[in-house]
Specification:
This protein is α+β, with helices and mostly antiparallel strands. 33% of the residues lie in helices and 14% in strands. The chain contains 16 helices and 21 strands. The longest helix has 34 residues.
Amino acid sequence: MTFGLEFFDLTPSLRLSGDSIAFVRKFTKVGGTGSGRNGLEVGLVDDAELKLLEGSAVDGYIAVTDRDAAYTAIIANGMVELQAGQFALATDAISRIQNISATVLELGIAGSQPRLRFERKAVDGIQRVNDTLYQMPAASFDALVTAAATYQSTVKERITEVIAAYMAADAAIIDGVDFTGKITAPVEGNIVPFYFANQAAFPAAADAHGAVAHSHADGALFFAHGGMWHQLALEADLLTSVASVAAEAATRAAADTALSGRLDVLETDPTTATAVAAGDAATLSSANSYTDTSITNLVNGADAALDTLKEIGDALAQGDTDVTAALTAQITTEATTRAAADTALSGRLDTLEVDPVTKTYVDTADATKLDASAVSGYGATLIDDADAAAARATLGLGTAATTAAGDYATAAQGALADTAVQPAAISNVDNTSDADKPVSTAQQAALDLKANKAGDTFTGDVIIDEGSGSTIKLETTGATSAGIHIEGPSGSMGYLDTTNGFGNDSLQVYSANFWVRAINGGTGNVIIDGNLTLGGTALTATFTELNQLDGVTLGTAASAATGDFATAAQGALADTAVQPAAISNIDNTSDADKPVSTAQQAALDLRALLDGTNIPGPYANDGAAAIGGVAVGAIYKHSPSGAIHWRVA
């Protein structure tokens, strides 16, 4: 129990204090009203035990909706289970633990419960013998003895846990305090050192985001961000970087001024627009490109907050050695790149200045251009054509002049086309594969002259000759019979002729049955001119003797053996035998397996069980028993003696 402060609502009308519960045990009611229902026995330290039963109310039991839920709620607060899911004990309720013998353990219970005795027996599970005695299998008993030696009060355990928690908290304060909230201190006079011998002594940056640390070996301050420690720049390093940037800016400005002056000379004497586009425009574009590239390279894709010298200087002034180092390296690289670019551009300008293409030079060249008078009228017309289509028209060319040879058929392909079969020559040919071709009219006519395997009518003689000694077989695999149907013309007789001309003519029928049936109004007669042999024996009876059987139908008993029938003595026994209807209420069970009948159970319900579980009580006196529903003259268990009393009044 949790200091015995927990109350449990077992039913809407019953609440129990945790420190009053000694044990709880599940059971199944046997016999009487409510037999077979699930129940829960609750032993109390200061009151008589309670018995709860699922379902409707039963005398001596308290109705509970869910036995298993009540059990789980009670044991969840520190009870020890002797049998998982079945029997649990509250160690706080134990006043005495005594090993009576190697096979008997007794637990004294504080209050009204005198004791709980457990015996080591060859049983399945924990068996309740009476109110105080339980029998347990060996494994469960041995485990209980071992556990009982370690039982402690849950109050003691809780106090021990609290003391241990306080001691752990004190130890944590000695080793250091991990704050989870904000640290507030006076505004002035705070000294919070963040001293470490070197960077190797720093805590993991991922675990100290936002923290600062001083490395004595580096003489620098670091801050943790993004899983890394970042060094703050020293003032001297920042001043050096700012000076380097300023010097590079002055150098670039002087170089741009020199380039501008040299370009001014070229722009003073420009050529025509066409010449400028072809010559000087390239030079100007190169110069502009150089200037733009110089500026872009200087910025080098910097963020908007760092794309001017002032912004870079401000960032450096705030102190970040990573920025300082990066800028210093970039400036060195940029200076080298710019010097090489200046040298190359200066060489190109030197070439232009030695042999410039000026306006004067272009005018002189124009004076010597081609005289149009030297071109013929036809040529002038061709030159003046606006596009290729007009030029082809002037030259008298068709569209084939601009078509590739591969767009035409070859001479060999043309020869094949001359000899190809034209559609008109095969107009009666259907475009179907051999497998899909239908049966033609001529083919069907030829097929119509053939007999159908499924059955057909022959209009002439059919002669089947399979050679000497062969047999013609008529077989079927279906449900119908194979046979030879012989039908003569109306008024005549159909026949089967087996004449072979050798004097040994015969007709043999090999079959399980040989039937002669009358159809179409016939009689179905069998006419035999010669002798009749049955089963290999010649039949000698005359027609008069055979006619004596005419109209007599023999039953199946006629062909049965005498052993297939009962004797006259057996028939006499059958006449006097008991019929099933006369014993329809008798169940086919042995005496040992017969259940308790309704009448027997009613009689048993009036008897007390030897273990006393169906005797109401305990009650202190007749008055209490009367309140509990015990009738006058009935018995009940007395409390606290445990004796059986009769209710007198």
